[in-house]
Design a protein that fits this description.
Blueprint: E1 2-9, H1 14-25, E2 30-36, E3 39-44, H2 48-59, E4 63-69
Antiparallel strand pairs: 1-3, 1-4, 2-3
Helix pairs in contact: 1-2
């Protein structure tokens, strides 16, 4: 398991938080630790899951600016 932070642009309200949370809930092998304005902290069970999480967020209309470790 690896803990990561996705830094996300385009989030500005509670709706954005909910949209990102819902998008991440659809990704397998991923545990959402927290979602806050501009950032999602995640625990991934497979490194390939990082790309799936990024895709889910971008498909929801937001942009992943960077990925860092926690």
């Amino acid at each position: 398991m690896t803990d990561i932070a996705l830094h996300i642009s385009g989030m500005s309200c509670g709706h954005c938080l909910n949209a990102v949370t819902r998008a991440l809930a659809q990704v397998n092998n991923l545990e959402t630790i927290s979602v806050r304005m501009g950032r999602a902290d995640l625990r991934v069970h497979d490194p390939a899951t990082i790309e799936s999480a990024k895709t889910a967020i971008e498909d929801a209309g937001y942009r992943v600016e960077s990925v860092t470790g926690l």
